[in-house]
Amino acid sequence: MALIEIRNLTKSFGNLKAVDDISLDIESGEFITLLGPSGSGKTTVLRMIAGFEDPDAGLIKLNGEDITHLPPFDRDVNTVFQDYALFPHMSVQENVEYGLRTRKVPKAERAKQAIAAIASVKLEETVDRLPHQLSGGQRQRIALARALVLRPRVLLLDEPLGALDRQLREEMQVELKKIQRDAGITFVFVTHDQEEAMRMSDRIVVFNSGRIEQVGTPEQVYEEPRTNFVAGFLGTANIFTADMASKLLGTSSTVSIRPERIRLQALGTKIDKSETSIVGTIHEAAFVGANTIYIIETEFGMKLTVRKTNTELLGQDDSFVAGDQVMAVWRNSHVAQIPV
């Protein structure tokens, strides 16, 4: 039995169907991410699990108990929001103790538990500070400690890293995953950032227009997209229509090829029998640090995106430039068929 069972969940706001008949199982101890663009329904699902929104139809079970219409304080879940929601007039320790105090935990015991929770996020030196005396990353970790000290079965995280700068965000991604592993609590994480989802998650649930497009490990949703939307939303994909795929590969289905799976060769280069090539002209070449991105105008009239890792030493790079005619080559095994 899954820890969280969601069955035929539906929610509308006026004429907008925010969540459209979705079903999902979430296992105990996993880090699962609800991923999708703004308005895709992911946050509404999180809020219904938390009890902040009431479904129009469907069922939510937690550890076998029907919690569909229970108020938030009667559910064994806790939520961390993007704005952290720390009490500005309370010290760090008082903020972390707050939930324990509302549960009537004795003063000495709640102080002990709060200090242990603060230590788990490595901020023992901040116990007497006020929230405004902390950095954004420190406030994020204290918000986590305040949620974790209550030992919920499930921690719900609504884009908690969205307000952080890129470097701190990447550091916190590592910290969050470590905290989740150490605590052994199920994390349900909402984000629109594809790289963040792939870096942190055991499984990803891809949302679009209120429905689930695909559920799988990061590798599965990236390498084996089940719909055009998933192929295009997670990273960059070169999508060949069924007609184009038939001409090139002899397949009647739509297919996708990731830019990093394609290499550029000089015209006339011999290729292996297990490979396919297409001739084109480099329309654009952009250096972006670790990679160079090429846009190729192909002989069939479609554009290909190619990503090349910059492994060569400076001054020894024989990369192609805009205007060059090239062969774009890929292994047939790197082509993903898209069934929908």
Automatic annotation (TrEMBL):
Per the database record, which ranges form the ABC transporter domain? 4-234
> What positions belong to coiled-coil segments?
none
Which Gene3D superfamilies does this one have?
P-loop containing nucleotide triphosphate hydrolases
PROSITE patterns referenced in this protein's UniProt entry, alphabetically? ABC_TRANSPORTER_1, ABC_TRANSPORTER_2
Q: Which Pfam families match?
A: ABC_tran, TOBE_2
Q: Which UniProt keywords apply?
A: ATP-binding, Nucleotide-binding, Transport
Q: Which GO CC annotations does the UniProt entry carry? A: ATP-binding cassette (ABC) transporter complex
Q: Which domain of life is it from?
A: Bacteria
Molecular function terms from GO: ATP binding; ATP hydrolysis activity; transmembrane transporter activity
Please give the InterPro entries that the UniProt record associates with this protein.
AAA+_ATPase (IPR003593), ABC_SmlMolc_Importer (IPR050093), ABC_transporter-like_ATP-bd (IPR003439), ABC_transporter-like_CS (IPR017871), Mo/tungstate-bd_C_term_dom (IPR008995), P-loop_NTPase (IPR027417), Transp-assoc_OB_typ2 (IPR013611)
Protein's UniProt name: Spermidine/putrescine ABC transporter ATP-binding protein
